[in-house]
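Because showing beats explaining, we think one record worth quoting, sequence and backbone structure tokens together, and here it is:
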Amino acid sequence: MRYLNVTDNYIFRQMKCGISPEMTAKLCFKSLKDVRAWDKGEPIPPECRRLIRMYSHRELGIGDSWEGFEMVGEKLHLPTGQMVSAQQVLTGIALIEINSEIEMKTTSKLLQFSRAITKIKLA
């Protein structure tokens, strides 16, 4: 019986990130042969490693402001626990840009409530 030599690259790609060799090749613009070579022990280029992490929601951005945000499938998982679609993000931005007096008052109240909830959670 033939056993697969399990390398760190294979564990990273398959077990931690859950991405198939075919998907990895498509994502990184590499051949399937290159991906299989990585699985056998050749080093994965840093840019491909980052792409794999970003795709598998391990890393969304490199700045501290993205802490707690991650992509899960086609939705953005917020630090509050909510999952939002691209359409919801666009709708939220459109509502913010309207800036009518009613929306300003509502936004102000929402921010007050969210700050109060955050204080309660931290206490």
